Each structure stands twice: as structure tokens, then as C-alpha cells.
């Protein structure tokens, strides 16, 4: 069996939702690319887990899954998905105080569309990303996100590779941690 280093997407998404809940949000939308990948499915489960563990109702109507039109795909389908999801969210009457996105590019698209329509982030709607990409630091408002320990995966991968080359055959299956990067796109609200 090969060594493997992974991120626990379910736990990371649960952490993101729990963070928003700790900020007073009780109705949190989940914005995702199509749930055709196991990581997106696991993130959805983590989002749902956080609701159940906090005794909050899980509302499937607050799950916004992108339905991209292949004919109009841009250079960045995740950014386009964020625009599409935010448009549907606005059309639905903004039934949540926060939007948790399955990645930072979706979050950036969501924020752009909300701002374009006069919705203030985070004063009217909080937005949270997932990945911790550098671009999130240059947005206004700066993106609140869940960061994956990418440096740690590189370090551990090298350690495992060198052990493998040395003939040690490490049987490593490791889940790496996440942390919350508090930007300016998510705010505490009154309960």
C-alpha cells in the first residue's frame, strides 16, 4: 500500500460552518461547484454535520450547487460558479446571513456579485472561502477562509519520499490540519 497524505475535507468544512455559527449565524448557505467529486460531497457532509451538532436545522434549500452552462464557461469556472450562485441567492431573497463556499474562487465570485448588487460584505452577508489562496489577501474585503497546511504536505511528502528511497517503506496515512484565516468577509452578528 502506498503512503498518502490527505486533507479531511469534511472536518475542514465542519470547522468553517462552526466558525460562522460561533459568529452568531444561524442560517448559512453552502455554495459549491457540482458535487461530482468526493471532496465536495465530504464538504457538504461537514456543513450538514455542523448544523446537526449545533442543533440548527439543516435546510437543503440553502445548498447552492453550481449548474454551469458548458457553452458559456469562462477561463475560471469556479469564479463563474460564484457569480451564478450569488445571483440565485439574491433571486431567492437572501434567506441566509452567511455563505460558506467550497473554495476561495467560488467565494470571490460570490463577493463580486453581491457587491455589484449593492449587498455589503460582511455587513449584510458574510462570506467564507476554503483553501487559503494568496489572492484572498488582496480582496476588499479580505477573504475569511479555511487554510490547508500546504507547506506541511510538501514537507511530509518529501520526508516520505526520502524514507522510501532509503528503503524504509513508510506506511503513512496522515490527515493534515486546517486553520481559520480571519479576514474581513465574515462578521459576528447579534443572535
Provide structural commentary.
The chain has helices at residues 9-22, 38-53, 77-91, 104-116, 150-165, and strands at 4-7, 28-32, 63-65, 98-101, 126-131, 144-148, 173-176, 178-181. It has a six-stranded mixed β-sheet with strand order 3-2-4-5-6-8, sandwiched between helices. It has a two-stranded parallel ribbon with strand order 1-7. It is 39% helix and 18% strand. Helix 1 (9-22) runs parallel beside helix 2 and helix 3 crosses helix 4. The protein starts with a strand and ends in a 10-residue tail after the last strand. It is built from five helices and eight strands. With 191 residues, it is an alpha/beta fold.
N-to-C span:
49 Å
Structural class: alpha/beta
Q: What does the overall shape look like?
A: globular
Residue ranges: pLDDT <50 for 5 or more in a row?
none
Tags for this model:
single chain; 6-stranded mixed sheet; globular; alpha/beta; two-stranded parallel sheet; 191 residues
Amino acid at each position: 500500500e502506498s503512503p498518502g497524505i490527505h486533507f479531511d475535507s469534511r472536518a475542514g468544512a465542519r470547522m468553517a460552518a462552526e466558525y460562522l455559527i460561533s459568529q452568531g449565524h444561524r442560517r448559512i448557505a453552502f455554495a459549491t461547484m457540482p458535487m461530482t467529486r468526493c471532496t465536495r460531497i465530504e464538504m457538504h457532509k461537514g456543513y450538514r454535520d455542523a448544523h446537526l451538532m449545533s442543533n440548527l436545522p439543516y435546510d437543503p434549500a440553502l445548498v447552492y450547487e453550481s449548474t454551469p452552462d458548458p457553452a458559456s464557461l469562462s477561463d475560471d469556472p469556479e469564479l463563474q460558479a460564484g457569480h451564478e450562485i450569488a445571483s440565485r441567492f439574491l433571486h431567492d431573497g437572501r434567506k441566509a446571513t452567511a455563505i460558506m463556499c467550497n473554495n476561495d474562487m467560488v467565494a470571490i465570485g460570490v463577493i463580486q456579485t453581491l457587491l455589484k448588487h449593492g449587498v455589503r460584505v460582511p455587513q449584510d452577508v458574510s462570506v467564507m472561502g476554503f483553501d487559503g489562496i494568496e489572492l484572498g489577501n488582496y480582496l476588499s474585503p479580505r477573504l475569511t477562509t479555511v487554510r490547508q497546511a500546504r507547506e506541511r504536505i510538501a514537507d511530509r511528502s518529501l520526508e516520505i519520499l526520502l524514507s522510501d528511497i532509503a528503503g524504509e517503506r513508510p506506511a503513512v496515512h496522515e490527515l493534515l490540519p486546517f486553520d481559520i484565516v480571519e479576514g474581513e468577509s465574515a462578521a459576528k452578528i447579534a443572535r
